[in-house]
Each structure stands twice: as C-alpha cells, then as structure tokens.
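The material for today's practical consists of a large collection of protein records. Getting from the letters to the tokens is the skill we practise here. To make this concrete, we reproduce a full record directly below:
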Amino acid sequence: MVSLGDVKRSAATLYAQGQHLAALRLYDAIVAAQPLDYDARLRVADCALALGDRGAAQVYRAVGWYCLKSGHPLPALVCARVLEAHGGEAGDLTAALVAHYGSASELLGKVAARISLPADELAIPIPDVRQPAPPDAVAAALARAEQATAALEDFPEAVHAIPLLSAMSEAALRRVLSTMLLKRLPAGAFVIREGEPGTSFYFVASGRLNVWATDGLGRKTPLAELGEGAVFGEMALLSAQPRSASVACATDADVFELGRASLAALADELGAVAEALHGFTRERLLGNLMATSPLFKPFQRMQQRDLLRRFTSHDVAPGTVVIHEGEEGRGLFVVLSGELEVSRRASDGAVPLGVLRTGDVFGEMALLRDVRTIATVIAQRPATVLFLAREYVARIVAAVPEIRKYLEALAEEREIDNQLVLGEEPAPADERILI
C-alpha cells in the first residue's frame, strides 16, 4: 500500500505528462478507498474529459452538489465552471451556491462544520498502472466517482461563510461569481511574483500554495502556506503598490482570480467590499511582520501577538508628519504598509535621507539615547504605522537584551547611511542620533 498523498502526487505527475488513463486509474483507486475524497473524484472527471469521455459531465455535477452540501463552496464553483466551459449547464449549481452561502442564508453559522478530505497519510491499495488497463476502466471509474456519496445524508447543519463573498448581498455575489476567472494550475506554477504590479486578488479553491518574500541578498523567507478558502493578493491591489511577496503552487491547485473589472461590477457595494478587504490586508500584514521582523523574533507566537496588542495602529494620509525634527521621542514606530520619507533640515532646505517601507522600524535612537529627534518622517503614500509608547519600549529593552541589541545595531547602521548621504564625517559614538 502507498499513502494517499503519494498516490495523488504520482497521479498529478502522470496527468501532467499526458498519461491520462494511468492517472485516472490512480485517482479511481483513491475514490474506491476513500469515497469522501471529492478532490480525487473531480480529478477522475478531469482525466476522463482529457480522454474525450462525455460521462465526465455527470461526475462534475455530482461532485459539485456534494461539495456544496458538505461545506466546500469554492470546489463546487470549480465544478460549475468546468461544466460551463465544456457546454454543460450549471446554473442550478451556481444558484444553490448563492442560496447556501450568500448573506441571507440561514445555513451560515458560527458553529459551522465541513466534511474534510481524508488525510494524506492514509494507506490505500493501488493498481499497477504499468499493466494494461481493463477495457471498462474509464466507465467504471466514472460510475464510482459519480455515485461515491449518492447515499450520504449526514451533511453539516451549518456551513462556514466564504471569506469576503458571503458578506455581500445575493445580487452582488451573483455578479462577482460571474466575473471570477478560474485558473487550474500545476504544482510549481507561480500565481504572483514579488515586485510585479497588483491588478487582482485570489481565492484558493483547492490545493496548497506557498508564500515567501525575498530580501536584497536573494534570501527567501517563508511567510505562509495557503489552502482552501484562503484569500491573497489583495494588498497590492488596494495599495496600488508592487507585490510584496511571491505565491506558487506546492501541489496542483485551483484558484479564482478577482480583478478590477469584478470590483467595478460592485460599485454599489464597493465601500463594504473595500472595508472587508482592508481587514484581510491588515491581518496578512501583521502575520508577515511577525514572520520577518527582527523586532518579533525573540518571542514565541503568543508573545508576538501580545506584543502586537500593545501597539496602536494609525492610518496616515500622504503629507502627514509622523515625527517632527527636534521633538521629544514619543515611542517606537513600525511601518505596516505604505512609504514614508526621512529628511533633515539644512540651510538650503530639507535633505532626503531615505525611505521607510513595510516592516521598517524607526524612532529608536531618540528612545535609546533619551534625546530629541534630528530628522522628520513624512508619509509619501497612504500608510499604516504601528506605534508603541516609550514607556513600554523601555520595559521591553530592559527585559529583552536581543531587542536592545537589534535596535542599537539598526540605529548605528542607519546613522552611517545618513552620514554618507549628507557627506559628513562619522560622528563620535556618543553623538550619533537619528530619529
């Protein structure tokens, strides 16, 4: 016997190589052993469709209805879209999805459930696909995939909402569903790349995707693994800034793309949609910050969350002065999103010293040295800044030597950079001040 996860990976490889019958036989083995594996059932239909068998349509419909009732609306939408793409009728599936998962549905509940996929670690028997397939292999696999859950009646009484989408009115949800673009991607495929412009965001219907950021030296920092129901890519779309991370498929994956055209179709509900998107964005930025910032590395996950709760969040418009040169240091700042410019007064005007972006920490030197700031920080784009009052910073610095060391090293490095910009000789250590 072989683990279910290994069988799926082998089947996906065979499918990618064009060996559709061999892949179908492996997916069929999964369905025979684990009838609740709707993903394997859907892949049986994919293989049959690639082989030109029209019986695949009935499997897509059966799997779509099962997913709808078992708490997996996005895979159900995948089935509907594939049906429509090949001339089938799926209007009833889409209408039921809206009724089940729209804002007016009585099935949505806090105490919700879904029928999960079987674990990848389960062992299942498989055929030797190197041997000739039985003449009825395709027909038998399609019949099994179609009828696998036909007798099942024990479905969840309450289902989870679809992130963002279930908050819309039913009319808006119908409009959005009609504009969402289905992408069926193989393992290794990129969905978005760091640095490219963001014109859309995505919902994961199936599969697993990895998220990572790359620093200036080309080193990758893993940020997250995404699965069914995850939303990503919205930050660049909302901020009109380049993508801050890359996302690629760890397995075969189905994702739905929602672009600017889709949002334009929601003009009458754009405020509510934007508010929900900003909520997603904030949580994602906070997660990225905890994963990448040296400020949070000395702490465990729960401690990181506790530290974040001590910060206050401030949205600042372009032109807003966050720190005035010459004022008393008020606390420590972290850029959650946006861009801010650092400058210093000179006889012929302000001299730019640098730009602060997501994850950058500032305000540290005035606190460490207990002096007034000698630089001004102004928002250049709409930005969100986290602020930690000086009293709490003092307690952290005293209690966590790693934090003091990080902040001192950051200030030292930044001051040297500033002196190079200003063309000054390095100042004695006790005279070095930044913000």
User: Anything to note?
Assistant: The CA atoms of residues 326 and 373 lie 5 Å apart. Residues 179-291 form a domain with the Jelly Rolls fold (CATH 2.60.120.10). Confidence is low (pLDDT under 50) at residues 427-434.
